[in-house]
Amino acid sequence: MERKTKVEAENGKQEIIITRAFELPVELLFKAYSEPEIVEQWMGTKVLKLESRKHGSYQFETSDPNGNVMFRANGAIHEFIPDQKITRTFEMENTPFAVQLEFLEFEKLTENTSRLVMQIVYKSVELRDQMLKMPFAQGLNMAHNRLQEVGDQLK
Amino acid sequence: MILRRDVFQAIADPTRRAILILVASQSMTAGAIAANFDTARPTVSKHLQILTECELLLQQQNGREVYYEINAKKMKEVADFIEPFRNMWDDRFNKLEAIMKNYKPEK
């Protein structure tokens, strides 16, 4: 299968660039980022607040099935140009990770296709590398936990 | 508690990275590897042990000598560590695309 999402993380740089082509008109792609109900669906998080405008702010929250908050993030919107651009900060609450800066550029390719280029800038190279490795580390942990579960069942 | 060797922990150390680069060109004995470093021999042995435990290095018995060689398969895994990050975003974007393809504007 064709790889639609591309991730560039040059060595020693404190940014990540994520590029993705969508089979969607740019207006619909942009809507997926600006309408709270839609963001909730694809991000799988609760949107407590999303003010889609310049100087607006947002807050996301994810809870486990028992209602315990697992993840909360917030940020401020610096630029909001419909169907073109969103510049915003993103910060995970109650974590040691510093705030990051995100430049989202929406581009019309054809009437029915579009592209999103997301540039994320981190406070340091180390932090960037840490964020990049997180899903890998989680994968390792999950594999480890599964192993543990199987082991526990054998007891 | 289970002691778990993390490959990232392993390659975070500059000496261990230097060892991997050294061994990548040819398999070597512990003595030959240690000769390339100013660090004490037991320290190099400890590094080799860690690299072997997390399978970045493989030991090859050759007569009385033990040669260390790079485990290309494991190294590739480490090089591909970006892949889970890419997959995470790919999943998210696939979902976004599927939702918006079925999107019907209200009113």
TrEMBL record, chain A:
Residues 24-150 form the Activator of Hsp90 ATPase homologue 1/2-like C-terminal domain. Belongs to the AHA1 family. This is Uncharacterized conserved protein YndB, AHSA1/START domain. The lineage of its organism: Bacteria, Pseudomonadati, Bacteroidota, Cytophagia, Cytophagales.
Automatic annotation (TrEMBL), chain B:
Gene3D superfamilies: Winged helix-like DNA-binding domain superfamily/Winged helix DNA-binding domain. It holds the Pfam family HTH_20. The keyword Transcription applies. Residues 1-90 form the HTH arsR-type domain. The keyword Heme does not apply. Keywords: DNA-binding, Transcription, Transcription regulation. InterPro entries: ArsR-like_HTH, HTH_ArsR_DNA-bd_dom, HTH_MetalResp_TranReg, WH-like_DNA-bd_sf, WH_DNA-bd_sf. GO terms for molecular function: DNA binding; DNA-binding transcription factor activity. NCBIfam families: HTH_metalloreg (NF033788). This is Transcriptional regulator, ArsR family. It comes from Dyadobacter koreensis.
